[in-house]
Amino acid sequence: MKQAPDIQRYSAPERLNHWLVAGCFLLTAISGLGFFFPSFNWLMNILGTPQLARLLHPFTGVIMFAAFLIMFFRYWQHNLIKHDDLIWAKNIHKIARNEEVGDTGRYNFGQKCVFWAAITCLLLLLASGIVIWRPWFAAAFPLPLIRAALLLHSISAAILIMVIMVHIYAALWVKGTITAMVEGWVTARWAKKHHPRWYRELQQQDPPEQQEKRR
Question: Any idea what the Cα angle at residue 118 is, between residues 114 and 123, rounded to 5°?
Fold first, then answer.
């Protein structure tokens, strides 16, 4: 029996976009932890020196936001919550046992939650970050607002870090996910198992023969 051809899940620009966001997240989050906890001050050296970290941290954050915004406009329609997602959520105990539930599209409910949590946190981080950004913008805002923005920035950053940790864990948990983001391709078996509705939609749009030619 002939094996079904692999399916492209992410193009090269999509993968570059994703890893740009990931790289900026690491630089921004690690240096930010260095600001937040005195015992973690040494983490600021990820951007060279503590002085450079204070200068570059906002810029790596802005680049991360801009890169994720590209992802947002590319994927938001695939991340709208639908009825099948509620079935997935109600059967989370089966998901925890590595069982597939429901007729999942390109992204499952867990991935959608990560997507919307990430864009929400990034918007809050950008808005609060502008208010506390010295020496460029902070002088234009009153001290009480700056203090509130610092609190909001810290809380949003902590939530985003936890969200990304869940995202990384899930990617490692589901075999083939990391390969898809590194190489861009998944097997037909993987697609049918984890994202059956997405697989059917692809087959209707692009028959296996055409996929093989493009491959």
Answer: 155
Sorting pLDDT into bands at 50, 70 and 90, what band is 207? low
The DSSP secondary structure of the chain, one letter per residue, reads -PPPPPEE-S-HHHHHHHHHHHHHHHHHHHHHHHHH-GGGGGGGGGGSSHHHHHHHHHHHHHHHHHHHHHHHHHHGGGG---HHHHHHHHTHHHHHTT---S---SS-HHHHHHHHHHHHHHHHHHHHHHHH-TTTTGGGS-HHHHHHHHHHHHHHHHHHHHHHHHHHHHHHHSTTHHHHHHHSEE-HHHHHHH-HHHHHHHHHHS-HHHHHHH-
Domains of the chain, with CATH numbers? 10-76 (no CATH), 100-215 (1.20.950.20)
Q: What pLDDT does 58 receive? A: 96
State residue 125 phi and psi, 5-degree precision. -65, -40
Q: What is the pLDDT of residues 31-62, one digit of tens each?
A: 999 998 888 999 999 999 999 999 999 999 99
Assess whether 167 carries a catalytic annotation. Answer: yes
Q: Which of 57, 167, 194, 195 is catalytic?
A: 167
Q: What is the amino acid identity at position 21? A: V
pTM: 0.89
Q: How do residues 137-187 score in pLDDT, each as one tens digit?
A: 999 999 999 999 999 999 999 999 999 999 999 999 888 899 999 999 999
Cβ atoms 87, 94 nearer than 8 A: no
